[in-house]
Specification:
Chain lengths: ~300, ~300
Amino acid sequence: MKEDPELFDYWPYDNRPKIEWPNGARVAFWVAPNIEFYELDPAVNPHRKAWPRPVPDVNGYATRDYGNRVGHMRMMRVLDRYGVRGSISLSTALCDHHPEIIELCKEREWEFFSHGIYNTRYTYGMDEAQERAMIEDAMETIRKHTGQQCSGYLAPALTHTDITMDLFAEAGGIYTCDLFHDDQPTPVKVRNGKKFVSVPYSLEMNDTIVYAVNKIEPRRYGEMIKANFDRLYEEGKESGVVMCVPLHGYQVSHPHRLKAFEEALEYITGHSDVWVTTGREIAQHFIDNNYDEAIADIKAKAS
Amino acid sequence: MPLDPSYLEYPHRKYGMDHDHYDWSMLVSRKPVKWPNNAKIALWVNVSLQYFPLNQQGKPFPPTGGMTTAYPDLRHYTLREYGNRVGIFRLLKAFDEYDIAPTFAVNAQLAERYPYLIHKLAERGDEIIGHGWNMDTPHYGGQDRTEEATVIERSLNTLREMTGQRVEGWLSPSKSQSANTPELLVNNGVKYMCDWINDDMPYPFRTPAGEIIAMPLSTELEDRFIIQANLHSESEYADQIEDAFDFLYEEAEEQGGRMLALSIHPWMLGQPHRIGRLEQVLEYITGRGDVWSAGASDISAAWQKGQG
C-alpha cells in the first residue's frame, strides 16, 4: 500500500491558467445517470460482501431493481425537458439484460461510459490480467451495443486497485470519474504517459450519497444543487469550472423526490452561460486546450 | 493470489433478469391500469402491528425497529408496545375521520397475546394480512424449509382462526425472505406479498407452486424509514408524502392508474406529536378527487382484472 495514490500532484486552485469553455460558458454542467445491474446471487469476492443479508437479500436487490423498472424512464423525461444529455455510468451487463433501456439512451444520443460489468463485481483482489480483462470486456460491450468508444471510467461500486487508471488509459480511456479532489478537470498520471484526466463527478452532489448516506431531505437536495451551482457560476467568470450531478434511477426518481430535483435542473439550465455537456466532451476539450498548460503550471507551483 | 477465475464468469448475463422469479418489464411500457371509477390513485395504507420480543435473538440479523441496547431493552420494548396500546387507537380515529380503508399486517403472536386488539380490528371489517410470527422470527436465505413452512402455516392459521378472514396477503418481518418464501406462501393460500419493493405497481411473480402477486409496499415512503432511519422531521414526512402523491397523480393522468403505498406504524405515527401529520396527509390526499382508498386485496384484484 502507498501513502499517496501517486495519481496527481498538488495543484492549488488560485492563479491557474484560464479555462475557456465553448461560447464563453462559465460552467460545464453534466449529469451522470448511473444505470446499474446488481446481481441477486453474485460470485463471492473475499474482500467485500455484496449484500448485508443472506441471499436472497430481497430488500437490497429490489431497491436497485426499481431503477431499471421505474426510475430511469422518469429521469429521462425530466432530462429531456431541459435539453440535458446524460453521460451514463453503465453496468455494461445491462446491455444484455435490459437492451430496451440502452435503446432509449441511444435515441437520446447520450454518452456511455464504463462502470464495470455488474455493480456486484468488485475490483478488490484482482490481479493485473483480471482487472484488464474486466475493463476490456466492459469497453467492448459498450462498443458492440452502442457503437461508442468508451472514454470514461467509474470503477464498479467505486472499487479500485493501484493500477486501475493505468489499465483504463492503456485500454484507450481518456478520463476518470473516480477522483473528487477538484472543481476543474485535472491531469492524472498514468504509466503509458498518455493525456488522461479527472473530470469532476462530485460525490457531494451524488443522489445516493445525499439521500442514503447523508440522509438529506428531497427538497433540501434541490437547494444544495442550486447553491453548488450559484457559487460555481460566480467563480466561472474567472475561469471555467465543472459541475456534475450523478444520479441513480432507484434514488432520485422516487415520486417524493423527482420534482425537487427537476426544479434545480430548471434553475441551472435557465442560466445563459452554462455549457450543458457530457463527460467525454469536457475531457476532450480540456485535453485539447488546457492539458499542456496545466502540466506546466503544476510544475511551476511545485516549489 | 488473484481472485478465483469464476469471478470473471457471468452465467446469468443474458436477456431479462438474473433469476426466474419475474419477467423484466418497464413500468412505462405496460398496459395502463384502470382503477374502479377511473380513480387516478389507489391509496393503500398498510398498518404494521408488531411484536418485538424482549429476548431478541437477532439471527441472522436484527429486526428492523427492534431492540438495540443490552438485555433488557425496556426502552425499545415499551416504545413498540406503546403503538399496540395507545397509538393504534389514534390511527383508527384518523382513518374513520377521513374514510380510509386501511390494511393491517399483524404479527400472529401479537394477535394471540392481545385478542382484544385483533377482535377490534376484525370487527371493523378492514383487511388483515399475515406479517409473520413476530419481528424476531425472520424468513431468510438458508433457513430450513420445514422450519419456515411451519412458521408460515402457524402464523396464517392463528390469524384466520382469530379473525374469520381468509388472510390472503403477506408482509414478511423486515421484508426479508428466503428463496422458498413465495412458494410457501402460495402453498398456504396467500395471493399477494408486499416484500419486493422494486416497482410502484403490482406485478406477477412466479413460484414453483404457481403465481403470486407482488404488491410493492414502498420503504422509501415508510414513516419509520423517513422519521427514524433518515431522521427527517414530522413536517418533512408530510411534505414527502404529499409530494409523492402529487407526482403519482400527475403521472396517472398520462400513464394510467397509479398506487400510493403508505406503510405506517402505530409506534411511530401514533405518538401525540406525529398523529397530526398523518391527519394532515390524509386530508390532503382525500381532499383531491379521483382517489380510491382500498384494502390491498381489493387493489391487487382490480389490478389483476385489468391484466386479462
